[in-house]
């Protein structure tokens, strides 16, 4: 069984999650607390394997709790009302979250992900370091977790030149690397994840970082010349959207 702690300042949310977790025999709730201070104490004393952590609480955020604990030797499933900025940071770091009110089916999926994955201590700490880095407010240093055959690589978003679709796979082209990285995810996942950054889908096969566009050459759709000298076709129907995005930089 996995020792589990619930951290949430709202009694209704705590009670609801506790009741839902009773359906999972592998989950052993060892503490339910309502503040950052009590959560820090419970984590240090009880050494859980899993923490359900609310983000916004009186007296501090769940992120501030993480800054107090080192090393982080447990997994976290964040629970939050819709907060686009926080959710984006969590997704970038390949961490899990549930929106309130917690949906039973989504909870089941989160528990299944938790119980099925390897709990690599170094990887867990790398994820949380990336998360804390990403919420620091310094956008030029934000990173995103990219899966590879061995685990995850944490790549600076500003170093990504473009993504290129290959069916259900994606090639990622980055600064300083002649050979692209093959990712076992479709390009649409990165379009959705990076939709608030300077990334634009200019073709069904191409998602590019506008910061790396060196030149645009006109044509029916034309093409973009990127900072690595690659030429990327712009589809005719994406042309106006691309030019508008480029001119707004």
List strands and helices in order, with pairings.
Blueprint: E1 2-7, H1 11-21, E2 27-33, H2 36-46, E3 50-54, E4 56-57, E5 60-61, H3 62-68, E6 75-80, H4 84-92, E7 96-99, H5 104-116, H6 121-134, E8 143-147, E9 152-156, E10 160-166, E11 169-174, E12 181-183, H7 187-193, E13 199-203, E14 206-209, E15 213-217, E16 223-226, E17 231-233, H8 239-247
What does this structure look like?
The chain has 249 residues and is α/β, with parallel strands linked by helices. The protein folds into two domains: 2-134, 3-Layer(aba) Sandwich (Rossmann fold), CATH 3.40.50.2300; 157-247, OB fold (Dihydrolipoamide Acetyltransferase, E2P), CATH 2.40.50. 33% of the residues lie in helices and 32% in strands. The protein has helices at residues 11-21, 36-46, 62-68, 84-92, 104-116, 121-134, 187-193, 239-247, and strands spanning 2-7, 27-33, 50-54, 56-57, 60-61, 75-80, 96-99, 143-147, 152-156, 160-166, 169-174, 181-183, 199-203, 206-209, 213-217, 223-226, 231-233. It has a five-stranded parallel beta sheet with strand order 2-1-3-6-7, with helices on both faces. Strand 8 (143-147) and strand 9 form a beta hairpin. Helix 2 (36-46) packs across helix 3. The chain is elongated and about 65 Å long. The termini are far apart. The mean pLDDT is 91.
């Amino acid at each position: 069984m996995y020792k589990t702690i619930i951290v949430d300042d709202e009694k209704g949310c705590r009670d609801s999650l506790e009741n839902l977790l009773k359906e999972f025999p592998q989950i052993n709730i060892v503490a339910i607390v309502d503040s950052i201070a009590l959560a820090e104490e419970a984590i240090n004393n009880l050494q859980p394997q899993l923490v359900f952590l609310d983000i916004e609480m009186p007296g501090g955020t769940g992120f501030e709790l993480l800054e107090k604990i080192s090393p982080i030797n447990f997994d976290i499933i964040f629970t939050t009302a819709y907060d686009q900025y926080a959710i984006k940071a969590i997704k970038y770091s390949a961490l899990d979250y549930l929106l309130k009110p917690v949906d039973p089916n989504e909870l089941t999926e989160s528990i299944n992900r938790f119980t099925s994955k390897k709990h690599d201590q170094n990887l867990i700490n790398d994820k949380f370091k990336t998360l804390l880095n990403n919420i620091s407010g310094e956008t030029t240093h934000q990173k995103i977790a990219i899966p590879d055959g061995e685990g995850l690589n944490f790549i600076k978003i500003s170093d990504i030149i473009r993504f290129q679709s290959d069916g259900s796979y994606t090639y990622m082209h980055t600064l300083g690397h002649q050979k692209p990285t093959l990712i076992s995810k479709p390009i649409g996942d990165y379009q959705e994840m990076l939709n608030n950054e300077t990334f634009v889908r200019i073709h069904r096969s191409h998602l590019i970082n506008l910061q790396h566009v060196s030149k645009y050459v006109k044509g029916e759709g034309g093409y973009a010349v990127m900072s690595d000298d690659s030429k990327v076709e712009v589809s005719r129907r994406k042309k106006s959207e691309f030019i508008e995005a480029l001119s707004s930089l």
